[in-house]
């Protein structure tokens, strides 16, 4: 078994710390954000059923033209936040808990959260 580096251990600890409080809400699903250097994803997950209720990604084919027109990665994040909120509202989910997945709450992660709030999700 591979020994984890101190950086990986630190990242996992930070990630788990941000998840600990979010998974304790049985009536509210989680809005989870994952970001890489190039792409960003957001999912609304019901942990008690183990089901994904809504998702949006910068790699989705239906988001392709809008992502190409965006000037920056923050603009792409705003598009993803709006899309995941619309899809969640279509599935009758209006209240969620935001899970930043260990990432600092600024930049692209904050853009997703702000766009989802403006589109109608309640955190």
At a glance:
The protein is α+β, with helices and mostly antiparallel strands. 43% of the residues lie in helices and 19% in strands. The protein contains four helices and four strands; from the N terminus they run H-E-E-E-H-H-E-H.
Would you mind describing this structure in some detail?
With 123 residues, this protein is an alpha+beta fold. The protein has one domain (6-119): Nucleotidyltransferase, domain 5 (2-Layer Sandwich), CATH 3.30.420.100. Helices cover 43% and strands 19% of the residues. It has helices at 6-22, 64-69, 73-90, 108-119; strands at 30-35, 40-46, 51-57, 97-99. Strands 3-2-1-4 form a four-stranded mixed beta sheet. β1 (30-35) and β2 form a beta hairpin. The protein is globular and about 40 Å long. The mean pLDDT is 91.
* Apparent shape: globular
Give the tally of structural domains: 1
Poorly predicted regions: none
The count of DSSP E runs of length 2 or more, i.e. the number of strands, is 4
Q: Helical content, roughly?
A: 40-55%
Q: What's the pLDDT, averaged over the residues?
A: 91
CATH class: Alpha Beta
What layout of secondary structure does this protein have?
Elements: H1 6-22, E1 30-35, E2 40-46, E3 51-57, H2 64-69, H3 73-90, E4 97-99, H4 108-119
Parallel strand pairs: 1-4
Antiparallel strand pairs: 1-2, 2-3
Helix pairs in contact: 3-4
